[in-house]
Design brief:
The protein contains eleven helices and ten strands. The longest helix is centred in the last third of the chain and has 17 residues. It has a single domain, classed as Vaccinia Virus protein VP39 (Rossmann fold). The two termini are about 30 Å apart. The N terminus is likely disordered. By secondary structure, the protein is an alpha/beta fold.
């Protein structure tokens, strides 16, 4: 196990920890309201599928700024909710938001779910909203989560479908590519599409001891801002790394292409793209 600051992580997760506990996590924390609104339709479906009971104990994996953890705590009014994440910045905000909302049965820990020593059989439900995709070793992570669940414990997670099912990813990366032929994100490597292959995910979950594994394909709108100008600034903050190796002409082309696609998706409700996720449910015997 490796230590980065006060956080103990699996060595394979060190790069993820440095990103999420650094600038990446800070940007998400600074834009938490926008990120939560962007994925709101998927979030509602996830929480409904989790079907959290009033007295259950809930584990939220990769909780970020804690919206799902807080909703779990409300649902489990006589139970508890624990949110874990690699990002100290996001967890600091999660704790503050929970306190502001008067939530007393939720707590947050900075932890790597691959190696964190959860007490055995200490939760009835484990949830994750686009958090498990960043596991460097999903087999180890899901095995660790399984041992943390009580017999009959349930898993409900949300992950992205492949890029072809996500208009937002195709359009935004295509614009910022500025004519470059960039490779598609590899399925299986840590990142947004690492769990896009249902067969691969089913195999990992089965090996961890889960059964009754179900995949529901969701297609929901994704909100990027109230108007083109606002969304343009937000997307650049999120994906500016794609411009670092461009010359001045290419950069100008990328910025114009980005503005064009955002403008084409600017509707009365804001800048809207279609997005596809897998809602995955499973249970232990």
């Amino acid at each position: 196990m490796t230590e980065t600051g006060a956080l103990h992580v699996d060595p394979a997760n060190l790069e993820q920890a440095r990103s999420w506990d650094g600038d990446g996590g800070a940007y998400w924390a600074a834009n938490t309201t926008r990120f939560d609104k962007a994925i709101a339709s998927h979030h509602e479906r996830l929480m409904a599928a989790a079907a959290i009971g009033r007295a259950e104990r809930v584990l939220d994996i990769g909780c970020g700024t804690g919206e799902a953890t807080r909703d779990a705590a409300w649902a489990a009014a006589d139970g508890t909710a624990l949110g874990v994440d690699l990002s100290g910045q996001m967890l600091e905000l999660a704790r503050r938001l929970a306190a502001q909302q008067g939530i007393t049965n939720a707590r947050f820990e900075q932890a790597d779910a691959q190696v964190y020593q959860f007490p055995s059989s200490s939760f009835e439900v484990a949830i994750s909203r686009t958090g498990t995709m960043f596991f460097a070793n999903p087999a180890a992570a899901f095995a660790n989560i399984a041992q943390a669940l009580a017999p009959g414990g349930r898993l409900a997670i949300l992950v992205w479908q492949p890029p072809q099912a996500n208009e937002w990813f195709r359009e935004l990366t295509g614009a910022l590519a500025a004519g470059r032929d960039l490779p598609a994100p590899p399925i299986g490597a840590p990142g947004p599409f690492s769990q896009a292959d249902p067969d691969a995910v089913r195999a990992v979950l089965t090996a961890a001891g889960f059964g009754n594994i179900e995949f529901d394909g969701l297609q929901e709108p994704m909100w990027f801002g109230p108007d083109t100008q606002d969304a343009h600034a937000f997307v650049l903050g999120l994906m500016n790394w794609m411009l670092t190796d461009l010359d001045e002409s290419q950069r100008g082309e990328a910025l114009e292409s980005l503005r064009a696609t955002l403008s084409a998706h600017d509707q009365a409700e804001g800048v809207i793209y279609q997005s596809g996720t897998w809602l995955i449910r499973a249970a232990l015997p």
